[in-house]
Design goal:
The chain is α/β, with parallel strands linked by helices. The chain contains 14 helices and nine strands. The protein has a six-stranded mixed sheet, sandwiched between helices.
């Protein structure tokens, strides 16, 4: 069921609990959970639909149409929030609600039913509920350590429901990428575990399980005898470089590189398992072979430059890049053009670009002399930024 359908169903449940018979049945189920939480039960709470257990359902003054009330219970069951369990034998001419069926509250149902009824869990925080839910998994605490203090939250899903899906990871193929495992276990949500791989490794007790997808490295190597690499921040500018539209880029000297999602994947950038290199169709075979061999050898020193936006976020990238490719410098031909535009008033503030915002925190230094003596002082003094795409215009 999609998120939109979830919202619609939850809204319908709020309407259905306006029926006295439905509200009475659901309140009684929640009363049972309040007396003994789900996490402490061997079996989920249940009650029989009969006059002495659910009197409102059988009170004709409050429930004049029991068939309609029963249809609402069936609709709630269809969504997985309760189960309706009929007796093994029922006379053919007897209505299903007169046969004293059992109504069972599901783990997934507790959260949404509480929400619809306005019945919060008595005195328990989200963290308490999460720890109780993890306790149901019956796994050693050290394997759950990465999740104990940081609940995995999915809107509209209870802690028990989410923890059950967490347990599904134990049965998946560990060679799946992390996002594939997340989508398989958590209702198609692929990014839920993005910052939790260490916790997942502890859960499975397998350091190789669910690797992160390789970093996508795009390269254009126009000649066989390249002398250095130019890292480009933005994809559009990379494509312009491939087409030969960047002034001052000598195709005989420079190969150009664009890395998708660099900041989140820097540590894996020069490993065969963590990186996937893709070359432009116009790349020279021998030059590409030289680059691939040098790239995958961290001990191999290469001349490297970086060209990105004239802003603090790009300076962060330069700083991180220098930790992997020692000696990387800001590419002066491109940055001098951007500086000149900014000084002429052809720049913008962070407030004027909705895509920048909080990214512009301001790094103290990059380690590159040109960036630290020219670019950063200008950015701090002026608060004026220019995107690198302006270089080719």
């Amino acid at each position: 069921m999609s998120a939109g359908h979830d919202d619609e169903s939850h809204g319908q449940l709020k309407l259905w609990v306006g029926e006295p018979a439905i509200a009475d049945v659901l309140h009684r189920l929640i009363d049972l959970v309040d007396r003994q939480p789900m996490a402490q039960r061997e079996r989920p709470p249940q009650l029989r639909l009969k006059a002495d257990k659910t009197p409102v359902f059988f009170d004709t003054s409050k429930t004049p149409d029991r068939e309609f009330a029963w249809s609402l219970l069936e609709a709630i069951a269809d969504r997985g929030w309760i189960e309706l369990r009929p007796p093994k034998r029922r006379p053919a001419n007897m209505a299903p609600f007169d046969a004293e069926p059992r109504i069972v509250l599901t783990f997934a149902g507790e959260f949404v039913i509480r929400k619809a009824l306005g019945r919060p869990v008595n005195g328990k925080s989200e963290r308490d509920l999460w720890r109780e839910a993890l306790g149901r998994l019956r796994l050693p605490e050290e394997r759950l350590s990465g999740f104990l203090h940081q609940p995995v939250k999915v809107a509209g899903r209870s802690a028990v429901n989410v923890s059950e899906r967490l347990a599904l990871l134990l049965d998946l193929d560990p060679s799946l990428y992390l996002r594939e495992a997340s989508a398989t276990a958590f209702w198609g949500i692929s990014k839920l575990l993005d910052a939790r791989r260490e916790a997942v490794i502890h859960l499975l007790d397998d350091p190789e399980a669910f690797p992160e997808k390789p970093v996508l490295i795009n390269v254009h190597v126009p000649g066989p005898a390249w002398e250095g690499l130019l890292f480009i921040e933005n994809e559009t500018t990379y494509h312009s470089a491939v087409r030969g539209r960047l002034p001052d880029v000598d195709p005989d000297r420079l190969a150009v590189v664009w890395i998708s999602g660099f900041m989140g994947a820097a540590k894996r950038l020069r490993s065969a398992e963590g990186a996937s290199m893709h070359a432009s169709l116009a790349s020279h075979p021998r030059g590409l072979e030289r680059l691939a061999r040098a790239w995958m050898d961290p001990s191999c020193q290469m001349q490297t430059w970086f060209f990105g936006d004239l802003d603090f976020a790009a300076m962060d990238i330069l700083h991180a890049l220098r930790k992997i490719f020692t000696g990387t410098r800001a590419w002066e031909p491109g940055y001098r053009v951007l500086l000149d535009r900014a000084r002429r008033g052809e720049g913008h503030t962070a407030d004027e670009d909705v895509h920048k915002g909080e990214q512009q925190a301001g790094i103290s230094e990059t380690g590159c002399p040109f960036a630290d003596t020219q670019l950063l002082p200008f950015l701090r003094r002026s608060g004026c930024f220019v995107d690198q795409e302006a270089y080719v215009t």
